[in-house]
Amino acid sequence: MGSLFEGNETARNAYSRLLPLEYQNPLYIRVLGQMIIQAPSQEGFTYIVASINDCTNADDIVALGELHLNHFVQYFKPESKPSRTPSTHPSQPLFEIIQQTITHLLNVAPTDHSRAKKLALIRDNYRCMFSGAVDDKYLREVPRFADEVQQGNVAVKITQCCHILPQKISLRRDTETRRQEVARIWAILHMYGGIQPHELNGTGIHRLSNILTLEVGLHFCFDNLQIWLEPTGIENQYSIARREEYYSPELPAVVTFATSTQYPLPDPRYLALHAACARIIKLSGAAEYVEKILRDAEEVKALSEDKSSSQLPCSLLPTELVTA
User: Fold this and answer.
1) Angle at Cα 93 formed by Cα 87 and Cα 94, nearest 5°?
2) Which helix (H) or strand (E) holds 134?
3) Which of 175, 236, 290, 307 is the most buried (most CB within 10 A)?
């Protein structure tokens, strides 16, 4: 372990409990280890360290790793029918208390996606925030964009409204199962990301500080944690990081966000949580596991529409303990 977490005996104790278990359940344990190392906030660091130290034995630690790996499975998973109610981890009383509290806050209908896109386009000068490409719709409406394109200074692309923290946390709360599912997501956003539930609940999910204007392909890569943003130390400036070097190599190394409007730029805290999730997926080796789960889920999608989840092959149903 060397000097890792030097001076913080609580963190060193948590990390040292993981080391003997790595060969027993490498994926689950590496996810926990990376969650400590990559924590996006002091709250997140304290949360995951305490969760590990609260485990009474090795089996509890492995279960905790499995629980959090399923956060990432659910992060990627497209919206579908409400899933079965998951069990909880025995060492998570605080998590459960926060989840129950948040459940009562989830009765506000989400606001308009279309308006968020329009306002973000105005803020971002009708361009992709990563590539600088002009939105194709507004090329015909803003003469100076046409001049730039003719001079070969800018590309033209279809852009979309990309939520930094996923829109799914605000969708479909019409059933108790769905409300509980969203509450579990929010418990993790709060405890690991340091994000307060009121910020993005209901109408807040479309707040401009949670929105990027991105090309269609970059939107997909960002949602799937294939690309993310790392702060450079300069306000609103970020370097573009990738899970693999071949993801969108044409992008600039650094992007700087700016606007001439009164609309807020993306919140660094939301970008930090997104980046932490992406690094955990990459550095723990969980990316292939998550992608396999999703491929398997696609293969049984037609079956799942016709039959109850209890009739599906167990090997194709990830244990959805907690979502994130």
Assistant:
1) 120
2) strand 134-135
3) 290
The residue assigned the tokens 């003997």 is: 20
- The CA distance from 307 to 56, in Å, is 39
> Residue 72 corresponds to which tokens in the numbers above?
């990432």
Rounded Cα gap, residues 55 and 28, in angstroms: 14
Instruction: Tell me the whole-structure pTM to 2 decimals.
Output: 0.80
Report which secondary-structure segment, H or E, holds 229. strand 227-231
Residues with Cβ within 8 Å of residue 111, at least 6 apart in sequence: 202, 203, 205, 206
Residues in the chain, overall count:
324
Count of Cβ atoms closer than 10 Å to residue 61 Cβ: 26
Query: Is the Cα torsion angle 249, 253, 259, 262 positive or negative in sign?
Result: positive
Please give the Cα distance from 161 to 210 (Å, whole number): 10
Domain ranges of the chain: 9-316
- What is the token pair recorded at 160? 């979309």
The CA distance from 177 to 68, in Å, is: 20
Which tokens in the block code for residue 136? Answer: 């194709």
Expressed in angstroms, the distance from the first to the final Cα of the chain is: 29
**What values do phi and psi take at 221, rounded to 5?**
-65, -40
pLDDT value of residue 79: 55
Task: Please say whether the beta carbons of 70 and 318 come within 8 A.
Answer: yes
pLDDT digits (tens, 9 = 90+) for 181-194: 677 777 777 888 88
List the alpha helices (DSSP H) in the chain.
Answer: 9-18, 26-37, 42-53, 58-76, 93-103, 113-123, 136-139, 143-150, 176-193, 197-200, 216-223, 268-284, 287-299, 301-306
Give the pLDDT confidence of 222-280 residue by residue, as tens digits.
998 999 999 999 999 999 999 999 999 999 999 999 999 999 999 999 999 999 999 99
- Give the rounded distance of the alpha carbon of 268 from its chain centre: 14
Bridge partners (DSSP) listed for residue 230: 239
State both tokens at 279: 């690094």
The helix-helix angle for 42-53 and 176-193 (nearest 10°) equals 110
